[in-house]
Design goal:
The chain has about 160 residues and is mainly α. The protein has a single domain, classed as AhpD-like (Up-down Bundle), CATH 1.20.1290.10. The chain contains nine helices and no strands. Helix 6 packs antiparallel against helix 7. It is globular. It starts with 6 loop residues before the first helix and ends in an 8-residue tail after the last helix.
Length: about 160
């Protein structure tokens, strides 16, 4: 397997700005629980092991139930998510797997019924954020768990 570069070391200014953007979303109009679900689902779709690992641990640290975390991959069949969370997951999937037709009015209307204009805008930026991180970490094969100490994720007790 080819050794990949460390994108953080190679582009520290860009990493810092993207991290600042990401951290701003911690103060957005969305609930923390919803943000965790969005990050986990997009990361699953994108096959980003680093981000799935990180966001599952963050969600556990913040009190998310283990069974709900297992159900994120099957959220359409699960009864464990609210209508609002389901709408957020639908929006996440639509934006993560953009079709050549874009996002349908049916999906937009479904999501718009659950979120205010500000919340929908913030949700969209949250999906943009995690997809960006997924792409960088997949491209450079960032190892799951490799940043646990830096982010305090060992507190999740999931080693």
């Amino acid at each position: 397997m080819t050794q990949r570069i460390n994108y953080i070391q190679q582009s520290p200014e860009l990493f810092k700005k993207f991290l600042e953007f990401s951290n701003l979303l911690n103060e957005c109009a969305l609930e923390e629980t919803t943000r965790h679900l969005v990050s986990i689902r997009a990361s699953q779709i994108n096959g980003c092991g680093f981000c799935v690992d990180m966001h599952v641990k963050e969600a556990r640290i913040h009190g998310e139930r283990e069974l709900r975390l297992h159900h994120v991959a099957i959220w359409r069949d699960s009864t464990l998510f609210s209508a609002r969370e389901r709408a957020a997951l639908e929006w996440t999937e639509a934006l993560t797997k953009l079709s050549h037709h874009g996002v349908s009015d049916a999906i937009y209307d479904l999501v718009r019924a659950e979120f205010s204009e500000k919340e929908l805008s913030d949700l969209t930026f949250d999906v943009v954020k995690i997809n960006g991180w997924n792409r960088a970490n997949v491209a450079f094969r960032t190892v799951p768990g490799s940043a646990d100490k830096a982010f305090g994720l060992e507190k999740a007790n999931l080693a």
